[in-house]
Amino acid sequence: MSCQAVISFPGYRSQGHCGYCESATGSKIYGFSAFKMPIQLYGELLDKGFRRSGTFLYRPDLANSCCPQYTIRLHADEFKPSKEAKKVIKNFNKHICSNSNVKTENNDNTIEELKKRKTKGSDNKPFDFDEAIKLSEKSDQFEIRLLDPKITEEKFQLYKKYQQLIHKDDPESVTRGSFKRFLCSNPFHQKSHISYERLKTEGGHFHQGYYLDGKLIALAVLDSLPGKCLSSVYFMYDPDYTHLDLGKLSALKEIALTRELGYKYYYLGYYIHTCIKMRYKGNYKPSDLLDPTSTSKPVWYPLEQFQDAFEKSNLKNKYATILNWKCAKDGDTSDSEYLSQHVPGVLSYKEAEKVANNLNGYYLLEPDDNGTVSISEDEEEDEYTDEFDDVYRPKLRKIHFGPFSHIPGNKVFKTMFLELIATLGPELAPCFGVVY
Ligand SMILES: [Zn+2]
Asked: How many whole angstroms from 70 Cα to the centroid of ligand 1?
């Protein structure tokens, strides 16, 4: 077993601001900063309910948070657009075609064809999603450009306008630093100069710019996980173009891209049933939710089955599960506030201890005083040189590896490892090294 991921001291944040219901203390998460994370391993974390914000990876505590968040994935390969989705695409195409020349005339769904049908007042041709969604990009007016995940002035101006007008963010909080931390930095150590071919084979983090008449009107922030899925990180648009329904359109564009890349799934982030404005994620079908109570292999159920469970679930138990799962009540949890919360999908203290004692070992990584030594002997030094200068990149001088019972120091390390093992499970825990 090798140490594939390098993370900071992980921990439980028991009181955080919730952006969905605006509770000041209602959000509870377990998380860590990742200095290094192979994208395949990140894919496994997605299937354990994790998401990322820059290099910070977190998993919500569904039992104790105000707004339980469920990982949702769409079967992009089987996607059938709803009436509303078709309308969004048609409206956008109509807008683009109203004053545009079409580059390609070679198919039946061209803008010229749409114009003709519009004047005839009939539209009996079956709707072809993959064709219709690409149509706008055939005009000389609209373009989606693949961009390196770096900050530029036009991206930052768009972000500022979007955060202030749509999310009512305090202007002082919308900085270049926050853009870079949230939307550029990532733990994947990818090469620069991305291409769709490279995103398909190596994966990585990238931006897509939506340009109308050469002006950036929207930006999609995405991760590509080879052979697995396209994962949406964020989307922003210019509020002057609200009439184009760019939020809905981008999801449809991303579903089409998922199919082009040959992936089965499109991950939309979290579905939050208790938050009406976040239920729209369930409008894309067919979708599954990750059962939050599974502690080993990921278990998914169709959204519809969960919606039944939400209706039936009693109010004392705010999260719903379809698995036959009982919350563990055992164990001496006095050392860990987190493990005493009985978070679904997380092992109890005693269970984690049992797993820990059966593990081959653990990794505890010691940073160098002046930060100049590489992670391990076979690791390239240049792994840590990239452009995100405000992200801390540790160089390490020592890797401690040994049986769990030999963890040095006080109880704090031991508890930290137990919490990590309890959250990641026995399969993933050995892949992690913790910097202390
Ligand atoms: Zn909330």
From this structure: 13
